C-alpha cells in the first residue's frame, strides 16, 4: 500500500543522504589531509627554533583542527561529559577501543589535552597524514611483534 511506498522513499532518502555524506567526507579528507599535512610537515622547520616538544604540540593543535573538520564534514555531533573531573595539570592515558571509526577524531577534537598516539607502523607510510602523525610524536608499534 501507500505506507510501503512512503517507507521506501524514506529508506532511499537515508541511503542517498549517507552516500552524499560519504562523498563529502572523501572530498574533505582528500582536500584537507594534504593541506594540513603539509602545514604539519613545514612545522619540522621550527624544531631548531622552538624545540621538538613545542613542535609536536603545534602539530597536535593542527590535528585537532583536522579532526574537528572531519567530524563537522561527516555531520557527527558529540557530547563530552566529565571533563571537569580532570585536572589539566596532570597526565592521563586515554584509550580508544575502535568501537567506531570516530573515536580517535573525537578524542583529539574533544579532549583539551596534548595527545600522543600509539598507532600501527603502517600508518607512518601514508603520504602527508602518516608523516604528520609521525612528526606529532606518535609511537609506532608492529602489532605482530610482542617486543
Helix/strand layout:
Layout lengths: L1 H41 L4 H4 L1 H23 L28 H8 L7 E3 L8 H7 L3 E3 L6
Parallel strand pairs: 1-2
Helix pairs in contact: 1-3, 1-5, 3-4
GO molecular function, one term: 1-acylglycerol-3-phosphate O-acyltransferase activity
Keywords: Acyltransferase, Membrane, Transferase, Transmembrane, Transmembrane helix
Pfam family, one: Acyltransferase
Task: Please give a quick description of this structure.
This protein has 147 residues and is mainly α. Helix content is 56%, strand content 4%.
General description of the model:
Helix 5 (129-135) links the parallel strand 1 and strand 2 (139-141). The model is unreliable at 1-13 (pLDDT under 50). With 147 residues, the chain is mostly helical. The protein has helices spanning 2-42, 47-50, 52-74, 103-110, 129-135, and strands spanning 118-120, 139-141. The protein has one domain (31-141). Helix 1 (2-42) packs antiparallel against helix 3. Strands 1-2 form a two-stranded parallel sheet. The protein contains five helices and two strands; from the N terminus they run ααααβαβ.
**Total DSSP E strands:** 2
Task: Assign an overall shape.
Answer: globular
Q: What is the number of helices?
A: 5
How is the biggest beta sheet arranged? 2 strands, parallel
Keywords:
single chain; 147 residues; mainly alpha; two-stranded parallel sheet; 2 strands; disordered N terminus
Amino acid at each position: 500500500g501507500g505506507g510501503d511506498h512512503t517507507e521506501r522513499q524514506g529508506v532511499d532518502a537515508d541511503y542517498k543522504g549517507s552516500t552524499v555524506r560519504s562523498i563529502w567526507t572523501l572530498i574533505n579528507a582528500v582536500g584537507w589531509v594534504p593541506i594540513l599535512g603539509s602545514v604539519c610537515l613545514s612545522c619540522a622547520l621550527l624544531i631548531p627554533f622552538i624545540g621538538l616538544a613545542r613542535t609536536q604540540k603545534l602539530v597536535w593543535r593542527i590535528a585537532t583542527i583536522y579532526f574537528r573538520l572531519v567530524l563537522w564534514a561527516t555531520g557527527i555531533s558529540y557530547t563530552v561529559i566529565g571533563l571537569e573531573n580532570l585536572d589539566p595539570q596532570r597526565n592521563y592515558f586515554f584509550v580508544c577501543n575502535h568501537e567506531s571509526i570516530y573515536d580517535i577524531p573525537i578524542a583529539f577534537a574533544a579532549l583539551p589535552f596534548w595527545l600522543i598516539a600509539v598507532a600501527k607502523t603502517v600508518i607512518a607510510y601514508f603520504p602527508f597524514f602518516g608523516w604528520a602523525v609521525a612528526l606529532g610524536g606518535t609511537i609506532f608499534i608492529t602489532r605482530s611483534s610482542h617486543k
